[in-house]
Design goal:
Blueprint (H helix, E strand, L loop, with lengths): L7 H27 L31 H4 L31 E7 L7 H10 L5 E4 L1 H4 L3 H9 L3 E4 L12 H19 L5 E2 L8 H9 L3 E2 L4 E2 L8 H11 L5 E5 L6 H16 L3 E2 L5
Parallel strand pairs: 1-2, 1-7, 1-8, 2-3, 4-5, 6-7
Helix pairs in contact: 3-9, 6-7, 8-9
């Protein structure tokens, strides 16, 4: 017998070891297939849940590596972007086909002196409104933007510094709208869907640039002229007289002393609700 020839006992041991090794490899392959992303094992618990206690816990297959759980880029779902709206020739002045509904809008904020009170009144009556914010105000009051979004209000673009749009070049209009949209998107995770020209002064360039930034232009039906501070009762009377299905009401939460605007909202909002109006925001 040659010295390098295995003894019968040693040959049996090697054969047993080979069988055990094959079984272990087979178990790993089965485990790896079971943990492939997109396939769920029957009876599997939530992701991140530890093995169940008891005899089966010791037999739990090894977890796949984090690298294997990462989806391949080629098969990742595409990022869907909202289609750009058409270029309008005039802003929306009312919301059509909404039944007995009205929209309340507030411009020029957010202002830490008056916006919180307006938000509190809206929250008390469980209604949603629209806030057209100026970028220079929004950038210093991002917490109020987050509060608006958390309460379900729509946050729109009212330019950066409230200029007269027709006096600006197209590049400056884009800067005014683009910078404000950027602040809103970085704060809320979503760019605004609506914009409003200061003073209601629109032009062709503003419609084109607004559409290119993914926004629709929204005007108003009833102007409370609250910025002139005509008195709380006058503001209330203008809103109630102008109330009708589809009406958009313009008020302000910044740009000066807006205490009359807050007081008027406290009075006319419950009256609108009692008259059967649904206070809402337009859909896109």
């Amino acid at each position: 017998m040659k010295m390098d020839q295995p003894l019968p006992g040693r040959r049996s041991m090697l054969r047993i070891a080979a069988c055990l090794g094959a079984a272990a490899v087979g178990g790993l392959l089965v485990s790896e297939r079971a943990e492939t992303p997109g396939r769920v094992r029957a009876g599997a618990g939530p992701v991140g849940e530890g093995p169940a206690a008891g005899p089966s816990a010791a037999a739990a297959p090894p977890k796949a590596t984090s690298y294997r759980l990462r989806p391949m880029t080629a098969f990742a779902p595409p990022v869907l972007r909202r289609a750009k709206p058409p270029v309008r020739k005039r802003p929306f002045l009312e919301i059509p086909d909404t039944g007995r509904a009205m929209v309340l809008t507030f411009d020029d904020g957010p202002d830490p002196r008056y916006t919180p009170d307006i938000l509190a009144v809206l929250r008390e009556h469980e209604v949603r409104a629209m806030f057209f914010v100026c970028g220079e105000m929004a950038t210093d009051n991002r917490d109020l933007l987050r509060e608006m979004a958390a309460d379900g209000h729509a946050v729109g673009n009212h330019t950066w510094s409230h200029p007269l749009i027709p006096n600006l070049s197209p590049s400056r209009i884009r800067d005014q709208l683009g910078r404000t949209s950027e602040v809103i998107e970085k704060t809320l995770g979503e760019a605004p869907l609506w914009y409003r020209a200061p003073y209601g002064a629109w032009n062709r360039h503003s419609f084109e640039i607004g559409a290119d930034l993914g926004m629709e232009p929204l005007g108003w039906t009833v102007d409370t002229l609250d910025w002139m501070r005509p008195g709380t009762s006058t503001i209330v009377r203008r809103v109630l007289r102008g109330a009708a299905p589809g009406v958009i009401v313009l008020s302000h939460d910044a740009g000066g002393n807006r205490s009359q605007s807050v007081s008027a909202l406290r009075r006319y909002l419950p009256e609108l609700i009692d008259e059967g109006y649904r206070i809402t925001v337009p859909l896109r």
